[in-house]
Amino acid sequence: MLHPTPSLKETPSQTAGPYVHIGMTPNFCGIGGVYAADLGATMINGPVEGERISLELRLLDGSGAPLSDGLIEIWQADANGSFVAPTAPNSNSVPAFTGWGRLPANEQGVMVFETIKPGRVAGPDGALQAPHISLWIVARGINIGLQTRVYFADEAEANADDFVLNKIMDKRRRETLIARREEGSPARYVLDIHLQGEKETVFFDF
Amino acid sequence: MSGIILPGADGLLFQRDRAWHPSADTPGYKSTTFRAPKHSLLALGPTQSEMTGPTFGHEKLGALDNDLIRNFSQDGTEAIGQRLVVYGQVLDENARPVPNTLVEYWQANAGGRYRHKKEGYLAALDPNFGGFGRSITDENGFYHFRTVKPGAYPWPNGGNDWRPAHIHFSVFGHAFAQRLITQMYFEGDPMIWQCPIVGTIPDKAAIDQLIARLDRQNTTPMDALAYRFDIVLRGRRSTMFENKLEGN
């Protein structure tokens, strides 16, 4: 065929609706006995390198109300800045660190991921990006999943040079992606995600 | 070692056609009022962080994970309702099949009721229907599952809005930036065209892409009707050396 161009359009998104937890975290909803565990609930399955952290995210709407029907998935590199290799189709092995987590919001709109602090990965300009975790957010009232990132407050130097953060022209808005660190064992990184309002989080079209 | 499959020097994803998708703020669907971001999305090409993504082995699935007629039943009693096989192919925008990717689905029961503590619709629960399942696509990108046809149901939005019969789908692809959630509707259902959530999609041709087709050829005789629903994920831009492309 001459001049072939992409022939198909992406399937349009629709909201995840108010019951996304049924389909994606059924055990959390009290619908047990079908899946042994909710997928993505555990990211660490064995000895892993790196600093263990709790990533505490809270989802808020434009009126300040928590999104108790929301859900967040995260994807990140390991402590060395590498992403987990794709699983072989017939493999039953689970990597010690999966790099991927999925949690439903609780009544307060909060999700706490038990993970490790990621290393740095290369950016499109060849320079290393600051350590970050990718987020994908869905809920009732969100027509297409929202893409954003979490950065770390104690990485100020790396954050200052980060390819993505530096694309945010209004520097004040960069702060919407930076989680504050609270010392403890493990350390907690805490960030509110505002869908709207003065503190609206920066969302990306990657 | 990094496990990414970056095909060539470019090989990034096609930009999302945001005019094909619903916009964030759609007043006809009231839940978007306080949940739609007001700032524009910051458009950036995907980096390594978005071009990689989680994958799942077939062995993670249980034998009944793709059988909603039986997977919640305690004693083998089957779910009530019109029996269906829903199947289709996951492709990318280049029409390449997407193999070995996780497809998840959830739905109301035949009466239009979800199994959820916050669900208030008066239609009865079916004690043998949980309402969710999952598949991993085969080497050609196909998935299939058995279920019952979900009922239409009323919901609090306008004074008397009804959702058409639908099944929610979640699909991964092989890059985190391909992640997609959508809903499947049924061919010929007049309820589709009066739904405020369907109406968030501006283009009728895009809506048509969400309507599964009745497939009489693949009907299971004396058992179940078949519906086909293909799903298209973002495609990867070609490089000069097409034959070196790997993955989808």
State the gist of this model:
The complex is a heterodimer of chains A (206) and B (248). Chain A contains 3 helices and 9 strands, in the order H-E-E-E-E-E-E-H-H-E-E-E.
Q: Characteristics of this structure?
A:
heterodimer; A: 206 residues; mainly beta; Protocatechuate 3,4-Dioxygenase, subunit A; 8-stranded mixed beta sheet; 3 helices; 7% helix; globular; B: 248 residues; 9-stranded mixed beta sheet; two-stranded antiparallel sheet
Overview of the molecule:
The complex is a heterodimer of chains A (206) and B (248). Chain A has three helices and nine strands, in the order αββββββααβββ. Chain A is mainly beta and 206 residues long. Chain A has a single domain, classed as Aromatic compound dioxygenase (Protocatechuate 3,4-Dioxygenase, subunit A), CATH 2.60.130. Chain A has an eight-stranded mixed sheet. The radius of gyration of chain A is 18 Å and the shape is globular. Chain B has 248 residues and is mainly beta. In chain B, strands 2, 3, 4, 5, 8, 9, 10, 11 and 12 form a nine-stranded mixed sheet that branches. A two-stranded antiparallel sheet of chain B has the order 6-7. The two termini of chain B are 21 Å apart. The N terminus and C terminus of chain B are likely disordered. The chains are: A mainly beta (206), B mainly beta (248). The interface between A and B is large, with 87 and 97 residues.
